[in-house]
Design a protein that fits this description.
With 256 residues, this protein is mainly beta. Helix content is 6%, strand content 36%. It has one helix spanning 240-254; strands spanning 18-20, 26-29, 42-47, 59-60, 62-63, 73-74, 82-83, 89-91, 100-101, 110-118, 127-131, 138-143, 148-154, 158-165, 175-181, 185-190, 193-199, 212-213, 226-234. The strands form 6 sheets. Strands 3, 8, 10, 15, 16, 17 and 19 form a 7-stranded antiparallel sheet that branches. The protein has a 4-stranded antiparallel sheet with strand order 11-12-13-14, with no helix packed on it. A two-stranded antiparallel sheet has the order 1-2.
């Protein structure tokens, strides 16, 4: 059937599960039931399995924020969409381009959670998982000065905290990496278990007050070599119990 002149198709609920092209690339598939992550303070939730908000598509220019606040991730205009597999987005090379979304600088603390595989866990420069670094900022990153995957926050000066050391990182494993900050203490978790903390004090600061960039950044930093399955951002610090709760959902969805 020739669909070249068709601008849209209404799909009856429950009948069609997946649409592929002639090369078996997934153009759209029905999303699994929405997992119930902690909702209190959730301001951004990007899920590669449901990257359109109504299912999955392989080539899109907008990654839907499932919170529904309109702050969707969009690629740079020079990028021809984002290439997704069935439940992750693949990063394989260096780039200065990245998806961006609005995220007002939180006044009461913050939490970043990234479900990912880093196939090359340490490089010669910084490779942010999720950040808004530019002069000052905050985020999770893979960097030599944190000896692996860590959290960095600027509150007037730079504060770094390692979460998973390079020698402990399994490049074949899907991790849930969590960094929280309550304006006093940074805490780092891997797979729901607290591994590190750093007492800092002061509100997180950024030159980019409304942009968070994951996968890369706007200047010369490496792109994460690996896969990102899910990204969640909160405008408060989750408790240890809440971090463990979210991780349990990730484990049921993605495995170890």
């Amino acid at each position: 059937m020739d669909f070249s002149n068709i601008k849209g198709i209404e799909i009856p609920e429950g009948i069609v599960k997946q649409i592929t092209d002639a090369d078996n690339n997934i153009l759209w598939q029905k999303a699994s039931p929405q997992p119930q992550y902690i909702q209190d303070g959730l301001v951004a939730w990007f899920d590669a399995e449901n990257n359109t908000g109504t299912g999955h598509a392989s080539n899109v220019k907008v990654w839907k924020n499932l919170v529904g606040n309109g702050y969707d991730a969009q690629t740079n205009d020079t990028v021809n969409g984002m290439n997704f597999e069935s439940n992750y987005i693949q990063f394989t090379s260096y780039s200065t381009r990245a998806p961006v979304f609005r995220y007002n600088v939180p006044t009461d603390g913050l939490t970043f959670e990234v479900v990912c595989i880093a196939t090359s866990p340490i490089g010669s420069s910084q490779a942010p998982l999720i950040s808004n670094f530019s002069g000052i900022g905050y985020g999770l990153q893979n960097a030599s000065f944190t000896s692996g995957i860590g959290m960095t926050i600027n509150t007037g000066s730079w504060q770094d905290m390692n979460i998973v050391f390079t020698n402990d990182w399994n490049t074949n494993k899907i991790y849930t990496i969590t960094g929280t900050y309550d304006n006093t203490t940074m805490k780092g978790y891997a797979d729901g278990v607290k591994l590190s903390y750093n007492t800092v004090g002061g509100q997180a600061r950024s030159d980019y007050s409304e942009l968070v960039i994951f996968g890369a950044k706007t200047s010369n930093m490496s792109l994460l070599s690996g896969k990102v399955y899910c990204v969640r951002c909160y405008n408060r610090a989750l408790t240890e119990e809440e971090v463990a709760y979210n991780r349990a959902i990730d484990l049921s969805r993605f495995g170890t």
